[in-house]
Amino acid sequence: MSTLWHSYAFLGLLLYALGRQSLAHSPTVIDTVRSQSLFFQTFDNDEWQSRWIHSRDNKYNGRFTTEAVKEWTDKGLKIPEKNKFYGLSALLDAPVDPVVASSPTPLPLVVQYEVKYEDGVTCGGSYLKLLTAEPGFTPEGLVDSTPYSIMFGPDRCGATSKVHLILRHRNPVNGSIAEKHLASPPVPEANDYTHLYTLKIFPDHKYEILVDGGMRSSGSLLDPSTLQPPLLPPRELPDPDDKKPADWVDVAEIPDPDAVKPDDWDDREIIEDEKAVRPRGWLDNEPVLINDPASKRPEEWDEEEDGVWEPKQITNPKCKVGCGPWTRPMKRNPAFKGAWKPPLIKNPAYKGPWVQKTIPNPDFFEVEEPIRSGVGAIGAVALELWTIDSGYIFDNILITRDPAVAEMALKKLWKPRYDAEVKASEAKLKEKERRKEEEAKKKKARKGGRDIVETALSKAFLALFEDDGWLATAAPYVGPLLDFVRENPDALILGVGLGPMLLLTVILLLRGTGSRKKQSTHAPNDAAEEVRPAGGSDAEPVAEVAAGREAEAEPASAPGAEAAEGPEVVPEGDATDGEIDEEPEEQKGPRRRTARAA
């Protein structure tokens, strides 16, 4: 029995070892894609640094790095700094023609790569340049004028947002090279997911641009409306010397000069309201604005420097109804028919549309394969970029002849990565919604408790005014208040909170007013104190003070008022057993001296 178990164990170990060996020798997706591609680059390890070289030109002050991106299982090529120029390129193993049409099976060109904006995108390019194969080119010598054959990829800056497709095409007649831009480029994605951009150019000059596997643009590159300027030049050009004659009339219809507007045609859209009557109390002769009587010219006002001072204008308080000339208000005209226009008639001078003459195009050419013959072979891949952002991530850069290889990379490399990002984003949104719902429940619970308190308080308050309540007799007088409390029970809470504060404010104001009145009541009355006698009744000094005040008032109106400025002489009979009480120093002036009784 023991020998049998040992045999099973040995067999299991053998099968496990064979399975491990089979897995070790089975090709991965990356290996399969690489083996069937003209160019393929991932950035999982440092191997890329031996293939991709930074430009030595002083313009390129930025350096790419590799970094493991969130939700990614591997690394990508990253733009780490903002506001930098970046120049990085890698040579292909051999030059690659844009398309192959002469072989038994025509072969397209497929370019595909992934882009992720980790920190968002404001202004910057994230496109690829497929550099033209030239014998003397080295990646260290990359500059912005290095020739390229095809430029493809997203570019976003402000209102400009497009997926570029540019072909640099050579005219076989004159040898000039022109950039042919896609006339209606698609709009790139701008969110922070990883997106896949794919370009396919077929030997029959058809093209396709896909984003995340979905078609965004397609058509024929030979169509004159696809590229600007067109891939093939026109056979004829407008003659620049042919000008439209000055007397050429190309207007087919003109307004009838003999037409007359009908007498009953009313083209007044707004008319005066004839039924309107001047309001009672309208003041025609009063100005709407008057000078503010409280406005005073500042003491520092200098008319030489500041100009003539004008008082502030305020609304005339007399103009409660209205001031100034009264005019009737305007209203819509019920008989309005619109603006009258004369009818159109055929133009007797019409000669038809003018067509400019054409001449043969000296640069015209006609070839069967303009892309293969006019677009240079591809010798390198470059990222020659400027951006004000950071965090652009590139990965899985692919050039192949087989669309199935690009499809494999889409399904096996990009799709799992994209799905993971979407799943993580949805999880964050769900968590955010969950927290929001919890907060709403807590808020509702708090509000529910407050509502219970408000309802109980309002019921208790309203019960005071019911038939058997303490304040039942006052209910008819506070009906509107009770209705308001029934509809707004929370207002009672506010009233309870603000009531004591308002009461305290009123008390403080009343105390302040009482203090000022008390101070004014106790102000020293020097005249009364001066005439109060040392002994005797109070009637005498009061009478003397009153007489003294009347005497003070008389000189102001009497002809001999100036005599009142001097001291008054008291008769001897009145001054018996008394003396003259002079006015204190601080109250000297045109006041009388009074006699103080002994």
Automatic annotation (TrEMBL):
Signal peptide interval: 1-24
Superkingdom field: Eukaryota
Pfam families: Calreticulin
Record GO terms (molecular function): calcium ion binding; unfolded protein binding
GO biological process assignments: ERAD pathway; protein folding
Basic and acidic residues bias (residue ranges): 236-247
UniProt keyword list: Chaperone, Coiled coil, Disulfide bond, Endoplasmic reticulum, Membrane, Signal, Transmembrane, Transmembrane helix
UniProt xrefs under Gene3D superfamilies: 2.60.120.200, Calreticulin/calnexin, P domain
Segments for region (Disordered): 220-248, 515-598
This protein's GO CC annotations: endoplasmic reticulum membrane
Annotated S-S bridges: 123-157
Topology in membrane: Single-pass membrane protein
Location within or outside the cell: Endoplasmic reticulum membrane
Transmembrane segments: 491-510
Composition-biased stretches (Low complexity): 553-573
Stated family: Belongs to the calreticulin family.
Protein name: Calnexin
Protein species of origin: Volvox africanus
